[in-house]
Write a structure and sequence with these properties.
The chain is 82% helix and 0% strand. By secondary structure, it is an all-alpha fold. The chain is globular.
């Protein structure tokens, strides 16, 4: 007991650290969110609703959600495949693959957008061929999808790799030894074990896809009603001194952020609960 008391911090230190943490959250996270909704509703609910009903705003909302949904299947397939390969197998170039997965975290989104212009722009590497076949990627939705995909593809893989490494491969090997096919092993063994980690990665990737600005801004062309996502639309409205419209659109992004936060918290709670239940079941076996 004495040793435990000796290693405990004084009460004023704990309360001081708690106050600093809560103060930081309030001033840098809570207060800006509140300010967005206050400014959006400053001139009344009718004007707020009218701002959201603007065709360009509705188009930006639809495009933002559409791009997020378009990149989601690719993120899931790549994330699961990459995590499975890295966690379950040993092969040459494994460290290189891990480095490439982390590349979007190190490269500026603006630089990533410029790379796509150099590849698919009118004067880019594939530009002349694309023009001959009347295929438009840059300053169009396909380019925005590619840029968003590049920015978001590490999230699911990065969430699943440590989880699958911790789980090991004993269960998969046992399923194969009992005659299960590859698909049966994945569906009945691997997927149930990673479902919450996969959902967690999907939530993070989806949030980043809807909030991405830099790379999408470079390749979009800022065509009103066609290639403006919500973040780009907010910038345009704010630069035009349309405060109500800008903050109304920003409030949608804030709501999406809050929904993401709630979903993330629920998934974390379920993951923790299942881990505790598993540890409880395995504890008697170890003893």
């Amino acid at each position: 007991m004495k040793s435990n008391r000796a290693t405990q911090e004084p009460r004023w230190v704990r309360y001081g650290l708690l106050a600093v943490g809560l103060g930081f959250l309030f001033f840098f996270l809570g207060l800006p969110l509140v300010a967005v909704f206050v400014e959006a509703l400053a001139q009344g609910v009718p004007l707020y609703v009218e701002a959201l009903k603007e065709p360009e705003t509705r188009s930006a909302i639809g495009l933002t959600i559409g791009i997020a949904l378009a990149v989601l299947p690719f993120n899931i397939v790549f994330g699961v495949a990459a995590a499975w390969a890295i966690a379950k197998f040993e092969f040459r170039g494994k460290s290189v693959l891990i480095t490439l997965i982390d590349l979007p975290f190190a490269v500026s989104p603006v630089v990533a957008g410029l790379v796509f212009i150099l590849l698919f722009g009118a004067q880019g590497t594939f530009g002349p061929w694309l023009s001959e076949h009347e295929i438009k990627i840059i300053f169009a939705v396909p380019g925005m999808i590619l840029a968003t995909l590049f920015i978001t593809f590490p999230f699911i893989a990065r969430e699943l790799i440590p989880l699958m490494q911790a789980q090991g491969k004993d269960e998969e090997e046992a399923a194969v030894s009992l005659g299960a096919s590859g698909w049966q092993m994945f569906r009945r063994v691997t997927l149930p074990n990673i479902k919450w980690g996969l959902l967690y990665g999907v939530i993070l990737a989806n949030a980043r896809a809807m909030g991405e600005f830099g790379a999408v801004s470079v390749v979009s062309g800022h065509i009103r009603g066609e290639t403006n996502t919500l973040p780009l639309h907010v910038e345009i409205l704010y630069n035009e001194y349309n405060a109500v419209g800008a903050f109304a659109a920003a409030s949608i992004l804030a709501l999406l952020a809050l929904v993401t936060l709630v979903a993330k918290t629920v998934v974390e709670w379920r993951m923790k609960k299942e881990t505790e239940m598993l540890n409880t079941v395995l504890a008697p076996e170890k003893t």
